[in-house]
Amino acid sequence: EGPPERNQYPILFGTHQPDWQKGQRHLLTLSWGDQLAIYVDGKLQGAGPYRGTRPTPLAGAMLEFRGEFALDAIKITDQPYVEGAEILPVADEHTLLLDTFSRIEGRETRPERSAGGAGGQLIGTFTLEQGQWGQELVFPEIPAGPKGVNVYYTVRELSNHVVEMWALRSLGDEIFVPAVRWRFKIGDVVAGESGGGYPWLQEHLVSGYVPAWRQPLWDDDHDAAILTQGLSRWHNYYVEGLRWLMENTGVDGLYLDGIGYDREIMKRVRKVMYRANPESRINFHGGNDYDFFDRRISVANRNLEHFPYISNLWFGEFFDYNRSPDYWLVEISGIPFGLTSEMLEYGTGGNPYRGMVYGMTGRLHPSAPYMWRFWDEFGIQDAEWIGYWSPRCPVKTDHPGVLATAYVKPGKTLIALAHWPAQGERPQATAERAIARPTIDGELSPGEWDNAARLTNFTLLGSDNVRGTPTEAYVTWDDERLYLAFRCTQMGGAPRAAARERDGLVYEDDAVEFFIQPELDTQRYFQFVGNSAGMIFDGEVQDPRWNADWEYRAKVGDGYWQGEVSVRWHALGMSPPKDGQVIGFNVCRDQVVPTKQWMSWAPLSGLYHDPGRFGRLVLTAAGPSTREEPYSGNPQPIRVRLIVDWKALGLDPSRVRLSAPYIMHFQTRATFRPDEEIPIEPSKGWLLVAQEE
Questions:
Q1: Residues 213, 157 contacting (CB under 8 angstroms)
Q2: Is residue 194 within 8 Å of residue 211, measured between CB atoms?
């Protein structure tokens, strides 16, 4: 739950069954309600503290199974499971879906019961055999590549469950960080302040510590961490613990979420790992501290001293995948440093087309497992990788915004194409002075906002051209106040409005956020968030302690919800605006129902808190105001031709065909001639295999 900066990871908990044997049959039950739980043959095997049900409709949902097994039936009901209860493949009044695979034609299956009345589509490799209750689906074994286990093992923070807590406390500030180093906010948690935090810390440690991450545990307890010093004798314990793990548990890799020590400790870590397993690896994950924490240094430069000991990178939260190819190459890819990387973006999973130009996938993008499978089929590990940045790259295009990278093998070459739009300035809108002050009642009465700026060009966070659910925002002003309004199309049920107190988790609801930056050349800005129940959150930069006297009213209608807002200029530290004055401005929408979407008027990636990418709002006395039209239709494709050094590829162009293999969630199957124009959707691309027929 929550906004992108809150680090949403998939829900994972183990239900390992070491006693299972080939040929056995087991009943697997996933249940949610009071908790999210997995039962095997009616007995509880694992659970997580996740309560309630999702309001999101299941239309278009996919059940994905991996491994070598047979599937007799699938049944979904509207009741949580009770341990030990019998489950039979028979429909009753609580059944939402029942499919025993008795009616399959090709890849289409017709369930015995389907709440939506529709059938399903089977994807992947399977055969049909006689099962326990009739026909069953049999999934063959898929050969797996090398496997390993990376342990998440950090010394940057210390759990409140550590048994050495009081011994370490006795060392004063050698281990504990006693005071503020830097301060930041993740969701509703303000970190970096001395004291405070989780109640256990306040009761037992009292003072002389700085709270860090907090994680709910399965037994309703919490793992409440505190910050530790970057260098101390505690690192001896850390290195020795890693040695023991490597030699005794089968762990053969280290996952570093940030690096909390210097190069000398890193050298010791690598020596210990190498002695235990020469094939061991270190995966380093870092986020965009340049913008997010306003440190103004790239995460690669800040950690450059460690790179000789790192195996690969995962960059990372808050990077902007809409920026230029140079930004991708230097800030994200790891290539200038002799490393490879992966993408991480919570809203869209990153841009897999641009990623392939740099040899990257996004672990959270749905195409990732299918892309990895294609890599194995192509044999990408045996190819010579020649990127567009190399003068030796044998493939180019006739379009300046479409770049090509080649993965060259004897007899065939994989060509990765990706499009970048021209890098323009921040979006700009003009707001005319109000003819009459709007009434802040949530009604958006006829004529009330006619001379205001109307903004409709909202795109999904992490994309520069994918439109979200229709949203409109309005802006006007006078000498006393700034006036804002919005109207959100609402589908699939009423908007979520769980937050009931000011400065609560309003941004986890269906909400609209306004960002106001009084001066374009500073990082200072103000944030307003409002939900459909009229509840608000506000802050200065990422400090929720700042509050202003906002007027705000919201209303929910049939298929929409809307709101009106006003705030005095002096609450924002501003005098009455002059004609033509320009301020930084952005509007964002948090959609929860029916599906999660994060949208922004100014194209952003990674997080809303990026004042360098806010739009510009011109305040004018005479107008006219900007009036953006509602978006309709799909963007037209870009058409490009390849410019290929066929001799360098060892291919005869008269015999070559360019084939685009089907990769789920990435591209459809297609074929092109070498001299043919290739259509590319804006901000997307292709993977093409060039091979003689």
A1: yes
A2: no
CA dihedral sign, ordered 187, 606, 528, 493: negative
d(CA 280, CA 252): 5
HEC profile of 533-549? CCCEEEEECCECCCCCC
Average pLDDT estimate for 254-278: 94
| pLDDT tens digits, one per residue of 405-456 | 999 999 999 999 999 987 666 789 999 999 999 999 999 999 999 999 999 9
Which of 194, 239, 186 has its CA nearest to residue 214? 186
Q: How far apart are the C-alpha atoms of 333 and 339, rounded to whole Å?
A: 8
For range 343-372, the mean pLDDT? 87
Q: Choose among 682, 669, 690: nearest CA to 418.
A: 682
Rounded distance between C-alpha atoms, residue 181 and residue 431, angstroms = 41
Return the exposure string of 161-175: e unless at least 16 CB atoms fall within 10 Å of the residue's CB, then b.
Answer: eeeebeebeeeeeeb
Q: What is the residue whose two structure tokens read 């180019």?
A: 396
CA 70 to CA 604: how far, in whole Å? 44
CA-closest candidate to residue 228, choices 217, 241, 213? 213
Of residues 159, 158, 153, 339, the one with CA closest to residue 254:
153
As a whole number of angstroms, the distance between CA 377 and CA 363 comes to 19
SS3 51: coil
Angle at 324 between CA 321 and CA 329, to 5 degrees: 80
DSSP class per residue in 15-53? ---TT--TT----EEEEESSSEEEEETTEEEEEES--S-
Secondary structure class of 130 (helix, strand, coil): strand
Residue 551 CA to residue 5 CA, distance in Å, equals 27
Task: State the pTM of this model.
Answer: 0.65
Q: Average pLDDT for residues 313-333, to the nearest whole number?
A: 88
Question: Cα(321)–Cα(387) distance, rounded to whole angstroms?
Answer: 18
Taking all residues of the chain, what is their mean pLDDT, rounded to a whole number?
87
Query: How many angstroms separate the CA atoms of 227 and 176, rounded?
Result: 6
* Crossing angle of the two packed helices 234-248 and 263-276, in degrees rounded to 10: 20
Coil, helix or strand for 599?
strand
Identify the three-state secondary structure at position 648: helix
- 66-87 per-position pLDDT tens digit: 667 788 889 888 888 889 898 8
Give the E-state strand segments of 169-231 in sequence order: 184-186, 189-191, 211-216, 222-227
- What pLDDT score does 406 carry? 98
Q: Where are the alpha helices (DSSP H) in 337-395?
A: 352-357, 368-378
- Measured CA to CA, the distance from residue 648 to residue 168 in angstroms comes to 63
Burial of 326 (0-12, 13-18, 19+ CB in 10 A): exposed
- Which residue stretches of 407-564 are H helix? none
- For 452-580, where are the E strands, in sequence order? 453-455, 459-460, 471-477, 481-489, 511-517, 526-531, 536-540, 551-557, 560-568
106: Cβ–Cβ under 8 A, 6 or more apart, which residues?
Answer: none
pLDDT at residue 430 in the model: 95
Model confidence at 595: pLDDT above 50: yes
Q: How far apart are CA 123 and CA 127, in angstroms?
A: 12
d(CA 567, CA 589): 19
Rounded distance, CA 468 to CA 603, Å? 12
Q: Does residue 602 have a pLDDT over 70?
A: yes
Residues sharing a CB contact under 8 Å with residue 79, sequence separation 6 or more, in sequence order: 94
